[in-house]
């Protein structure tokens, strides 16, 4: 237990250093950094416009009003920016390339957890304005939609949201790990991202069979929909137990699969 | 290739869930019935297989890094070379994709009431060939801006965003309010997805053909001239140090 805590503290300290290093790296190319921010905001704007276009023609979708969905999309923006920015853009997206060209060799020689290195090494700082835009959309949806904000809902929301992040990270890691076996599978991270993007849909749009699938095998419903429902006051208490169970099971599974994949890895170049 | 196909399928499934939920409480949305909207989203990847082009994902970076020097000194038109290469790649991809689309088409015919008229489909694919050329010109012009900037990775993203909004990739343009539709109709992006998809789905009553042919020609000639100017001017700025 003490050993585990020491390891976690060591990795957290290292991560803080990596965050600082990445920040200085990003701000070195200011124009590029500004364009990264612009592109992120534009993608979010397109998602909102697509939703607005539907609501120009209908009044509700599966029981969700425009402002309730805006809240959901805002939270989803925060969620997907965090998942993509922390785990995907500079990390998991590059894993297939590292496997193909032997870049993984260097990582495996480091005295730190290799899963940590391939998935969380370099955060993407342009996620910050995206997160802010998501928060603004959430706040606007809450205010305009006359939704009741309660501090009592904030705690279970945060708990479920963090579990959702772990679920998304683990799913992304599991799917991308297959690139170690498939070698030239550059599109696997995109596939994982597309699955995570399904999280933006409210739970009620899925039929019963699909809902079971998206709550168990591919638990995208636990990523955004359930935390949002909690925030707007529709908490089901069993979620508070099921979500962490799913999150840590998937995290553990991702670790097992990663370790197994490394047994099949043979260096490409060095 | 299989994974890319799964990515496309997931995008389709995502739209399917949303629209199925909407039509549980509505009979029509805008001018669309449930079958019509599903048909629209099914046809988008099919038309995209013909009209999509990805030059702005590679050429700007090559310009920025000074990697086009060898091509520049050769006695052929670089734009034509890129276009030919894109056509070659597309033909290979279509050889793999078309049997899959055919199977999907047969499954749709057998198990759903959705019908796709083969005459309109052929007509839309004929239009898609011209759309591909226009798309190439837009992509090439966008790529040429890399002569004036140190960073070019975002260009393909900007184009994709344009296509998502103005091209009908994310939603059919006729679901927009009439004032916005009028603005969007003036832009060239609808020729890449929206118009061929509408033709393929047989929904051509609203299409004013003489106007469309005229606008399409004007945009194509405009981008052709712009591509020529940007390339000529860009080459005077081009530098390939150490290459």
What are the main properties of this structure?
heterodimer; A: 270 residues; mainly alpha; 12 helices; 73% helix; globular; B: 243 residues; 10 helices; 70% helix; 0% strand
Quick summary:
The complex is a heterodimer of chains A (270) and B (243). Chain A has 270 residues and is mainly α. Chain A is 73% helix and 0% strand.
Description:
- The complex is a heterodimer of chains A (270) and B (243).
- Chain A is mostly helical.
- Chain A is built from twelve helices and no strands.
- Chain B is mainly α and 243 residues long.
- Chain B has ten helices and no strands.
- In chain B, helix 1 runs antiparallel to helix 2, helix 2 crosses helix 9 and helix 6 runs antiparallel to helix 9.
- Chain B is globular and about 65 Å long.
- In chain B, 32% of the residues are buried.
- At the A-B interface, helix 2 and helix 9 of A face helix 1 and helix 7 of B.
N-to-C order of helices and strands of chain B: HHHHHHHHHH
Low-confidence stretches of chain B: none
- Helical percentage of chain A: over 70%
Oligomerization status of the protein chains: heterodimer
Q: Please give the count of helices of chain A.
A: 12
User: Can you count the helices of chain B?
Assistant: 10
Strand content of chain B: under 5%
Largest interface: A-B, 35 and 33 residues
Chain-wise SSE layout:
The complex is a heterodimer of chains A (about 270) and B (about 240).
Chain A: H1 2-28, H2 30-55, H3 66-88, H4 95-101, H5 104-108, H6 114-120, H7 127-144, H8 151-182, H9 188-197, H10 208-215, H11 225-231, H12 239-264
Chain B: H1 2-23, H2 34-51, H3 59-64, H4 69-72, H5 78-111, H6 118-144, H7 154-166, H8 178-186, H9 194-200, H10 209-237
Helix pairs in contact in B: 1-2, 2-9, 6-9, 6-10
